[in-house]
Amino acid sequence: xxxxxxxxxxxxxxxxxxxxxxxxxxxxxxxxxxxxxxxxxxxxxxxxxxxxxxxxxxxxxxxxxxxxxxxxxxxxxxxxxxxxxxxxxxxxxxxxxxxxxxxxxxxxxxxxxxxxxxxxxxxxxxxxxxxxxxxxxxxxxxxxxxxxxxxxxxxxxxxxxxxxxxxxxxxxxxxxxxxxxxxxxxxxxxxxxxxxxxxxxxx
Length: 203
Fold this sequence. Notes:
This protein is 0% helix and 26% strand. The protein is built from no helices and 16 strands. The relative contact order is 0.10.
């Protein structure tokens, strides 16, 4: 806690690390690069609060306890890279991460949890991998800087959950994959800038 001169946290695969405890790197405000291994299964509360720069996550991201207690809530990361091999981004994983500007999601990801990027106020782009079948409730709700939403070639997306993009007031153009059959309640509520919305063939 509070290692103010620590600049980088790079945890290699050779460690076979499975757990990072509560507040492990909290207050390490000089950290500008964090790399987490695929072996990781549990990240404690407030483990990286105050850390910034770029986060590279090579492990599946577990669910947060609530939208106020997401795994990375309170961090200062500007860029997030979800590495190849990751399949799951858990509920509220990055909820309230108001400094994230870019989130690169690997093609292997198939599950975007409820509220995964909720209220990421600076996030400008959402590139949804082809293997994702459902965007859960409030996944991108409150992303007020979100302008671009794209879907991977041959997207398998079928469902957009309740309020999935609610309040994304900068989206102007949206083209949903042909496989989409279900739109949840208020999915595009308060998306006041949408000029063109192309629904899939099955809508």
